[in-house]
Amino acid sequence: MERIAIIGGGINGLVAANYLARGGADVSLHERRERIGGACVSESITLDGVDYEFPLGATVLGFMQDFVFEETGLSTRLETWAPPHAKVVYYPGASEPVYIHRDPEALERELRAKCGEQGDVAAFRTDEARVVAFLRDGYRKARSPRLEDARDELGSELTERFIEGTARSLLEHYFTSERTKLYMAMTVIESGPVSLDAPFSAFNVPLLNSGSVFDGYYGFVKGVLWKLTEELARINAELGVGIETSSPIASVDDVDADRIVLATDPVTAASLCGEPAPEKHYLGTSGKLTLLFRHPVTWKDAPEADTAFRFIFLNDSLDAMERAAQHVVGVVSDRVRAGLHPALLRRRRHASAGSRRALRARHRVLQERAFRKARSRAPGCRTLRQRRGAREDRESRRSSLVAHVDPSRSRGAILVPGGQRRSHNDDRRAELLSPALFAESGGELLPFGANANIYYCGAAGYPCGSIAGTTGYMCAQQILRTL
Question: pTM of the predicted model, to two decimals?
Answer without folding.
Answer: 0.80
